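User:
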Amino acid sequence: DRVEGLDTMAEFGIAFLMFTIGLEFSIDKLKSIKKEVFVYGAAQVLVTSVTFFVIAFYIFDIAIISAFIISIGLSLSSTAIVLKLLSENKLLHKTYGKNALGVLLFQDIIVIPVLVLITIFSAIGESGTHILQDTIMSAFILSLIFLIGGRYLIVPFLKMIVSTKSDEIFITAILFIVIGVSQLTSSFGFSYSLGAFLAGLAIAKTQYKHQIEADLIPFRDLLLGIFFVTVGLQLDVFFIPANIGHILIILVLVILIKALIIFIIMNIGYRTQTSLKTAIILAQVGEFSFVIFELAKINNLFVDEHLNQLLIIAIIFSMVLTPFVFAKTQVITSWLIRKKDDNDESLLPPFSTIDHVIVCGYGALGKRIVHHLKEANIPYVIIERDHVLVEEGRYNKDHIILGNAAKKKILSRVNIGEARCLVVAIPQEEKMVRIVEQVRSMMPDLPIVAKAASLYQKDFLKAIGKVSIVDELRNTAECILKRLDNIHPKS
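Assistant: Predicted structure:
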């Protein structure tokens, strides 16, 4: 009874974890980083899983289905931990942040067919053709129910619930949808997790998505905690000291092999530093490996309890180490790569324009500035650190170079001594300060145009001298007041 109850709790936690993934799933998000998702993400999962499968099946002589399950599980990284760290440290806009996001999104997507495969493997004793026919038919019927229900039932149902203006009823209704859809998919022979993912996907298309996200944030964290508690409860506390040597060997080998594979794949299209940082932050094994191992265990596909314990403990250790390794990413990168890519002259094309405008940053603001400069036939050059944005600029035939605008060598390369002025078009306050300080130390009289988004930035730019300040707070307030002037009061 204890084991059965534990499995039920674990599957409940897994289901709500998959629901949050489905709720945050966005086609637009996939389109914006499709190369990172479908090229690098797919390559990472394929190469990593094949490598671990070969090791498990041919070297350790593990049964083929167990070897497949282990290899897929170890190829996945921790979406919950990595995205939380990247988001908290405001690194998702960095190239390696986008790379990590793309790889993690593909890993989340691939979990769904893997869970379906495990369900199919659980009925391996039946006729292969019979299993395939039943699975296809069940998937077809389930898809029809999902499409019809998602379009004609969920929105009216949620509209009716919202009209009650009761938060308790609204949250209860969401839980009812998740559990109901999960039970429906289970009755068709698929996992509860797949149903929860589909429920999240259906709700994500509605206008109530953001309200649901806001209301379920506490529940999401609590249920994710419950899931990890159930994982911990499966561990034998006496197992760790007796097998600590094997656990550490597995931990080190998995992290090193995974990091090396990710680095090699990323290094094909990105800078060495970017590839290494991506490898470091994705080297751990993630929570979905528990999902896969637990479902396989429930379906009697993962019968070696000793191996299961070794893997689970090693995975937990890898996840615990992640925040500490993440904090030292720059230190590790600098230690392994002595020469920074930003100082590599081979990355910088020659530049000889005079009386030009130097634009630091090629984000949304930088692109608009460049567009107006081109219309006015004013010569310009852009300095951008993000490899992806540099590629986009070159595709648009803009004069752009890869580099850090706070470096003297980069500023010298764009002929700062002959520039008309310099425009800082980046949102990060600390980077803006470093660029302005460096430019002013090199060229005390060069005009600088920069946006002040805070009182600190405004005071800093005033103290620097010869800076044209665009006061974002004042301009925004003035624009709002002008709009208000055009709105006539109700009679």
